[in-house]
Amino acid sequence: MTDHSDLEPVRAPLPVGAAPRRPTRQVQVEWGGRIVRVGGDAPVVVQSMTNTDTVDAIATAIQVKELAQAGSELVRITVNTPEAAREVPAIREQLDRMGVSVPLVGDFHYNGHKLLGQFPECAQALSKYRINPGNMGGGKKRDDNFAQMIEVACRYEKPVRIGVNWGSLDHELMARMMDDNSKRAQPWDAQAVMRDALVVSAISNARRAEELGLSPNGIVLSCKVSHVQDLITVYRDLSARCDYPLHLGLTEAGMGSKGIVASTAALAVLLQQGIGDTIRISLTPEPGGDRTREVIVAQEILQSMGLRAFTPMVVACPGCGRTSSTVFQELADSIQAYLRRQMPVWKTRYPGVETMNVAVMGCVVNGPGESRHADIGISLPGTGEIPSAPVYIDGERSVTLKGDSIAEEFQLIVEQYVERRYGAGNQ
């Protein structure tokens, strides 16, 4: 007999889950009675951004509504011209009429100091300002422009995100740090200096904002780059050197699967280490693509990691030679789409339903086991198997479906299960 004594556990099981969240200050982003808390003990917040021309107030308000309905808790809009700034109050008013209370974040570059000063209605309609100190001029001009924006934020009691980006890093700071680096006994490589400059820029500008009168509880920081390993390193450094809440995002992540994979790879590592208080997935949409996809990806990252729950999750097998039929693929797709469509109603009617797990499996190898582990699951017949589909509810075999209406019958069973388990009489 083989001796396995050396494999017996000699210590406690390894912990499962992300590290405790890094302690930070808490920032409140508000509109009307809606308060979105960022940092502190608040859950990680999902953020997105419109890609409409802000001058088109109706189109922008419609896209903000779509993003908010998809689950974006903050929505950023571009404010780059006087015409755009003039329309921000109209966008806010249109959203309020539609019953959409999501706070708006104004994205400012180059001329933000002028726009906020010239259009006080815009400054008031926004709930937060995003400031990039790297594109506000140089020297005293940069300091004055930054000070003007912070003064407006203080006047209207608005929080700010000081967002440093490696594509628009303060050239004077970078040059100075490169000079200092050349005097080191062992100089760093240029990429390391750039990463350090991002962190120094973010923290020094945050401290400057505090000196100008902005509350420490009104500042969020970000340092965005487009390479995964650089982003992880920058945020680990930033998180160790300050206690401001941090906004995570891989900038210019790209299109399709590349953008999703790169963003997930970077953000998952940081979130697992307890770093990050808001996230945005900066996907380049395909022509005519749905902007809400970035919201769904952000939610799925957080839910897959067990950090938040937004909608019931569907477990489905990838398929193999045992599952030549496409029935289980079609059922998994239709059930997943159905669950997401139902959530705007379900989240208020059935508290807790977002944590439900559904399994749609394609054959008898792992199907019954996965179905038993789910709250509700179905194991469809694979190639050559008996044409029947057992349904499991809370770990027990409940019913076996047969015939051409399996999909419709299973959806009805899911509806009944949700009502029975999460309905008002069962809370």
TrEMBL record:
Segments for region (Disordered): 1-23
Involved pathway(s): Isoprenoid biosynthesis; isopentenyl diphosphate biosynthesis via DXP pathway; isopentenyl diphosphate from 1-deoxy-D-xylulose 5-phosphate: step 5/6
Cofactor note: Binds 1 [4Fe-4S] cluster.
Residues binding [4Fe-4S] cluster: C317, C320, C363, E370
This protein's UniProt keywords: 4Fe-4S, Iron, Iron-sulfur, Isoprene biosynthesis, Metal-binding, Oxidoreductase
Function of the molecule: Converts 2C-methyl-D-erythritol 2,4-cyclodiphosphate (ME-2,4cPP) into 1-hydroxy-2-methyl-2-(E)-butenyl 4-diphosphate.
PANTHER family: 4-HYDROXY-3-METHYLBUT-2-EN-1-YL DIPHOSPHATE SYNTHASE, 4-HYDROXY-3-METHYLBUT-2-EN-1-YL DIPHOSPHATE SYNTHASE (FERREDOXIN), CHLOROPLASTIC
Protein name: 4-hydroxy-3-methylbut-2-en-1-yl diphosphate synthase (flavodoxin)
Origin species: Parapusillimonas granuli
